[in-house]
Amino acid sequence: MSPVGALSARRRSAAEEDGFSLLEILVSLAIFAMAMGGLAGLLVQNSQINRASQMRAEVQSTARNCLSMIVQVLRTSGWDPRNAGFPPVVLDPSPTGTTNYIETLADLNEDGDTDDSGEDVLIRWVGTRVEWRTTSDTTQPFVILADTISNDSDGDGVAETMFVPDATPNPTRVTVRITAQSPAPDPRSGQYIRYTVSSEVVLRKTL
């Protein structure tokens, strides 16, 4: 071998000792890709867990807030300090699994009638919305309390009645049952998140 060839061979040998071979680079890239893939999967999983937790918190808040507002109104129904003789509530004569209403009456300002704002409250559940009108003026619009109420606690497609009196036509108490549902499925399970709350309210007097 000529001196020039020997020198070139020594340089290649030194380069191979100091650097990486093509196989080593490919193996390193493969390991790096696997690590990045695992990290990406972990980030996606954490994002789904956070999203599911947020959805669950929103569903619980919706159900509880809606129930709280309705129960507060029901507890004032029947207030009749001047013995005007009005009933505490007017019940839906034919509730169904998609529509149900209850009307509460109370003489809050003690003027002998229920014509003032907040004294005649019609609460209704229609489809997925719970809404109310806090006046006897039927020309006034309803205000939406919640718009993700399915009242299908077990997810079987059959909704439960929202306002359930203990008797008709003379109830002494009314049970309010509300099931809120997430607007979209849980990204992990593909199932909707549901949360049910209920409260039994004793009426001030019978119908």
Oligomer: single chain
SSE series: HHEEEEEEEE
Radius of gyration: 33 Å
Give the neighbour order of strands across the main sheet: 1-2-3-4-5
CA-to-CA gap between the ends?
116 Å
Shape: elongated
Please state the structural category. alpha+beta
What's the short story on this structure?
The protein has 207 residues and is of the alpha+beta class. It has helices at 3-18, 22-76, and strands spanning 89-91, 99-105, 120-126, 129-133, 143-146, 163-165, 173-181, 194-202.
Features:
single chain, 207 residues, 5-stranded antiparallel sheet, 3-stranded antiparallel sheet, 2 helices, 8 strands
Structural features, described:
- With about 210 residues, the protein is of the alpha+beta class.
- The chain has one domain (about 45-200).
- It is about 35% helix and about 25% strand.
- The chain is built from 2 helices and 8 strands, in the order ααββββββββ.
- The chain has helices at about 5-20, 20-75, and strands at about 90, 100-105, 120-125, 130-135, 145, 165, 175-180, 195-200.
- The strands form 2 sheets. The chain has a 5-stranded antiparallel beta sheet, covered by helices on one side. The protein has a 3-stranded antiparallel beta sheet with strand order 6-7-8, covered by helices on one side.
- A hairpin with a 2-residue loop joins strand 3 (about 120-125) and strand 4 (about 130-135).
- The longest helix has about 55 residues, at about 20-75.
- The mean pLDDT is about 85.
